[in-house]
Amino acid sequence: MKTTKWFITVALLALICGCSDSDDKNTSSNTTPDQQRPDDPGQQGTSTPATQDKVIASGMTIQITGFITQQYSGNIESVRAVDGRSLPSAIAVSSKSKVIRYLENNGEKLNAYYDDFNLTNYIQNDNEDNELTNSAVYDDKHTFVTHTLLTKDSSNKVTSCAGNIYMVTNEKDTSGNAFSMKELAVGPMPDAIAITPDKKYAITADEYDGTDTWGKCPLGNGNPSVSIIDLSKLASNELIISKQIKFTQNALKQSREPEYIAIASDSDTVAVTLQDSYEVALFKLSEIMKKDGDTLDESVVKFVDIPANAAGVKSWPDGIVAFDIASKHYFAMAGEGSDSIIIIDDAGNIISNTQITEKEVPTNYPCLEADWFQGTKYSPDSVTSFSLNSKTYIAATLRYAGAVIVYDVTNPAAPKFELITKAGEGDIVGTGVCSEETSKVYPEGISSGIFGNAAYIWVANEGDHSVTSIKVVAK
User: Fold this and answer.
1) Number of structural domains, the chain?
2) Least enclosed by CB within 10 Å: which of 85, 199, 326, 346?
3) What is the CATH number of the domain that holds 312?
């Protein structure tokens, strides 16, 4: 996400320095500790025991019964649960080294259920500034990834800012190749992708990512957009952009740059976070598809202002997820700047704005205090939802705290804190005083899936080069 780029540029030291931390509340897997990271991207990583502090609320309704962290080469920014396999599974994407990993949790470690796929062997004329920014799972054979495309001339000057997606198929084709890949150009600098539950469309958040908003594109002449991709001919390896919605600025001249996308269970209601204008864009796919023309302006969507927290710190909405309560659609988003979890309904009404405070985050977790991001201590980045025993939960990554926090949102108007646990392994120990030295684990992407009577929460730890798998059951 965008703060990652800003943070690395302005305060790289916050990702450096760390030491281990554990206590008698820890859960543990039967894995062998090994802190060495493999140098070969093809290696499957090393697992570490779950010696992680966790804090639970009184009257909690869930508990952690399994925890595995496994390290790999290359930073891992995105992770997506994969349904329908014989073991809890996920795909993890290393954004800079451009490797997709296919992982399954056997209760002791994360195994590879398919060979790693390195896209650098297939992408032409790429450079180190381009990244695989996000991913979406169509099924256990097809994965979509977004790819930013900065083009530079011989003097290393950026000449264009574009983007595409790749559909990676992990099954042997008629020529005996283990993988095949289909490319499609989308809008500039895509940062996220989501697939409708009915599998008819994929939608990308084409951020554009201007340097005026701490991004990478310095050209200043691009339009952020949302691209809607028809998947009806996926079986014949054909992808088509059906519609593209172009965004400009709000009344305050703040750039409307799409950051993340969530799609409700009706496969129709779409919510897009617009981080730099503190908004969410809402639209119905069924209505958009009836519009004339392939390119539409932003008048076809509804904009919802996302409020600041009680201290007046602006939200900077980032990751967003859809969930249902009593057949009504809701969206929960991470207020990256305001340390909040904000819930809206499908009409855009603000249902709750829950701030994450010291009451939930213990003092031995790191936190941020910096002039360049005032009022932000924990930086919730991405969110996921899951249901157990008739209750619905939201889990969020807290990047500067190196943690995952979980709320019961069965009553979306009054979320209840359930638990917080560290992600990754061997993070720095907080002192109770926030500083620019924050988590080195730096959890970013998060996803979840139900397997049997348990939810498995998957976490992409960008700074730690690792994936964490957390097993949660109802008490």
Assistant:
1) 1
2) 326
3) 2.130.10.10
For the chain, the C-alpha Rg in angstroms (whole number) is 21
Sheet with 416-422: strands ordered across: 54-56, 416-422, 403-408, 391-398, 380-388
Q: What is the reported pLDDT for 122?
A: 87
The pLDDT value given to residue 426: 81
- CA 436 to chain centroid, in Å, comes to 23
The mean predicted confidence, pLDDT, of the chain is 88
**Does residue 343 carry a pLDDT above 50?**
yes
Least confident of 147-161, 213-227, 414-428: 213-227
- Using CA atoms, how far apart are residues 312 and 303, in angstroms rounded to an integer? 21
pLDDT > 90? residue 38: no
Query: Per DSSP, what are the bridge partners of residue 78?
Result: 93
Which strand (E) or helix (H) includes residue 7?
helix 2-10
Which of 288, 277, 132 is closest to 196 using CA atoms? 288
- C-alpha closest to that of 344 among 297, 387, 383: 383
CA distance 416 to 137: 30
CB atoms inside a 10 Å sphere around CB 240: 11
pTM of this structure: 0.89
How far apart CA 429 and CA 53 sit, in angstroms, is: 10
Quick: pLDDT tens for 382-428.
999 999 999 999 999 999 999 999 999 999 999 999 999 999 988 99
* Alpha-carbon gap, residue 74 to 91, rounded angstroms: 14
How far apart, in whole angstroms, are the C-alpha atoms of residue 225 and residue 418? 37
Tokens of 363: 């003092």
Pairing of strands 240-246, 295-296: parallel
- Domain residues for 67? 2-474
Beta strands in 126-257 (DSSP E): 132-139, 142-152, 158-169, 180-185, 190-195, 201-206, 225-230, 240-246
Q: Which of 396, 366, 364, 357 is nearest to 25 (CA)?
A: 364
- Per the listing, tokens 């207020």 go with 335
Tokens of 29: 């897997």
Q: How many residues does the chain have?
A: 475
Q: How far apart are CA 331 and CA 388, in angstroms?
A: 18
Encode pLDDT of 234-268 as tens digits. 988 899 999 999 999 999 999 999 999 999 999 99
DSSP 3-state of 88: coil
What lies within 8 Å, CB to CB, of 452 at 6+ separation is none
Beta bridge partners of 112: 103
